[in-house]
Write a structure and sequence with these properties.
Elements (H helix, E strand, L loop, with lengths): L9 E2 L8 H14 L11 E10 L10 E11 L4 E5 L6 H8 L7 E6 L2 E2 L5 H5 L2 E5 L11 H11 L4 H14 L15 H12 L6 E5 L7 H16 L3 E5 L3 H7 L2 E6 L2 E6 L1 H6 L5 E7 L4 H7 L5 E9 L2 E8 L5 H9 L4 E7 L3 H9 L8 E6 L1
Parallel strand pairs: 1-7, 4-9, 4-10, 7-8, 8-9, 13-16
Antiparallel strand pairs: 2-3, 2-5, 5-6, 10-11, 12-14, 12-15, 13-14
Length: 373
């Protein structure tokens, strides 16, 4: 079997449309050429009290960094489980522990019924894979076919069966015509499609997707999300990290929101929304930037969170509050000078809940976020 970190495939996800028939054919090839999944794992991932601390030297005077602080969750077979949180929250550290790239400081982590400590690293790595956004991870001086051949050998796939597997992978990512070109001559999109082919070489039972659609065009990202769901439907267990709330809401069966290394919320989207039953949201869409009024409202403690995004040349402001009253008639004149295009109450979205949970440990003043798209 393959050994060391070299065999652990990192892939960067891109995908093209009209792939359903090729995907079915590919899954058939994989499942008939590689040892099938063990059907006995109801929870391929079990995490209990995971803590990861990065130690610093005494001379530095810098305190130790608690990257992950006592989190617990489990992931069912074939489930898409989301890890959401701001930068530095501990998502990537958690993924690295689950992928046996970091040891936990304390707590218990079992992958496919194997503890991540105690010499099981090689056995675990052979049955998992990681997909991240970016362009690293391919051998640029090799052709696409040679890259897949190389990683097929690392995973000890029967040489007599590799050609069929590689052919199916290339067809699925629509790189058959470019199979014998050096990867250094591939476009960015072609390189990304090669990364997904690499990620599927070993038919991973668990697939870690770390920001898989970051930087992708909307159409390509949509196809990637479709592929992710099809892989989960075929039995692959998936952990997804993303900054796109709509992506998490569309794909994830359950979600854990991590803030400052700790769990801020855990459950289905409906269960997360139920954590804040008293939250009311007013959405105001304006032609001009309402930053002055938003700044004034942020001083009023009755508003728990204010978020403004620029979308399609307009400004969408969502105001969260716990009181129920005729707030619309009060807010209307305060926003009218910005050219109101739409105003009304709205149900809390996953993004609303996420922002509230992440900022729940802040001071009593409301949190104001501004984004531009």
């Amino acid at each position: 079997m393959p050994t060391g970190y070299a065999h652990f495939v990192y892939s960067y996800l891109d995908y093209s449309s009209n792939h359903t028939s090729n995907l079915v054919r590919l899954l058939f090839i994989i499942l008939t050429h590689i040892t099938p999944m063990n059907p006995g794992y109801e929870y391929p991932i079990v995490v209990e009290g995971l803590t990861r601390i990065f130690k610093t030297t005494r001379r530095s005077g810098i305190p130790d960094k608690v990257a992950v602080d006592n989190i617990s969750f489990n992931v069912k077979k074939g489930e898409i489980f989301g890890l959401l949180g701001p930068n530095g929250a501990g998502k990537t550290t958690t993924i690295k522990v689950l992928a046996t790239l970091l040891l936990p400081t304390s707590g218990k982590v079992e992958i496919l019924s194997m503890d991540v400590v105690g010499g099981n690293e090689k056995a675990i790595r052979n049955r998992i894979n990681l997909v991240s956004g970016g362009e690293r991870g391919l051998y640029y001086r090799l052709t696409g076919r040679q890259n897949l051949k190389f990683f097929s050998n690392l995973y000890n796939i029967d040489k007599g069966k590799q050609n069929d597997l590689i052919k199916g992978l290339l067809e699925t990512v629509k790189l058959t015509d470019a199979a014998d070109l050096k990867v250094e001559n591939y476009s960015r999109g072609m390189k990304q499609r090669m990364h997904i082919a690499r990620a599927l070489v070993n038919n991973p039972e668990i697939l870690y997707l770390d920001e898989p659609t970051i930087g992708l065009d909307p159409e390509i990202a949509r196809d990637v999300r479709s592929l992710i769901r099809e892989l989960a439907d075929a039995g692959t267990t998936i952990i997804l990290t993303t900054h796109y709330m709509y992506e998490a809401e569309e794909l994830c069966d359950r979600i854990m929101i991590i803030s400052d290394g700790r769990s801020a919320g855990y459950g289905t989207v409906s269960e997360l929304k139920a954590l804040m039953p008293d939250t009311n949201v007013v959405e105001i869409v304006t032609s001009d930037d309402p930053h002055e009024t938003v700044a004034e409202l942020s001083k009023e403690h009755r508003f728990t969170h204010i978020n403004t995004e620029r979308v399609g040349g307009r400004y969408c402001t969502r105001i969260q509050m716990r009181e129920v009253g005729d707030v619309i008639s009060e807010l209307d004149p305060r926003f009218s000078r910005y050219g109101i295009r739409k105003m009304g109450y709205d149900d809390p979205t996953l993004e609303d809940i996420y922002l509230s949970l992440v900022s729940s440990n802040e001071e009593s003043a409301p949190v104001v976020n501004r984004h531009e798209h």
